[in-house]
Amino acid sequence: MPIKRIYHIIDYYPDLATYFGILIISILELLIGNNLKVLIFSIFMMFFTFLIVLPTNIALKNLFKTKRPDGYRNNKISHFKGSFPSFHTQFSFGVSTAFITAIYLLSPDNIKLLATLLAIFCLEGMSVIVGYSRIVVNAHYPKDVVGGAVFGIITGFICSYTLTPILKDLIV
């Protein structure tokens, strides 16, 4: 299967690619001895972050009103107007960053570094692939993907650092 075909598959199922990364890292986290409550909270942080990413992305697209690259499925693929920032990239980086940050903040000290590095490698790696696929299939310009990554990472950090201290007592 040619590599470009793989990117087209990721383009059709980018959220599924992110969820697949979450499933893989959750299994790895359990294997290294991380607490199930930490993983459940980290997954909760992902979904909360999504609730912030979606309206933020819509607002940014309406603010910037940039066109998608010519030829991308006649520009009818997205329900959202505008190309900047890439929603799929913002979603992937946002939920991944929220998950990683929650893992970092809540994991036991003896596995904190390993747990965080595993999550970064698996999830941010998947996010990079999702973002790159958006460029390969001509859905977005590179600036749209970089903008989506930046806004996603910021949103993930804000959500995790805001909610984790408030809800930490429920976990530990």
UniProtKB/TrEMBL annotation:
The keyword Transmembrane helix applies. One of its GO terms (molecular function) is sphingosine-1-phosphate phosphatase activity. It holds the Pfam family PAP2. Residues 42-160 form the Phosphatidic acid phosphatase type 2/haloperoxidase domain. It comes from the Archaea. Keywords: Membrane, Transmembrane, Transmembrane helix. The chain crosses the membrane at residues 12-32, 38-64, 85-107, 113-133, 145-167. This is Phosphoesterase PA-phosphatase related protein. It comes from Methanotorris formicicus Mc-S-70.
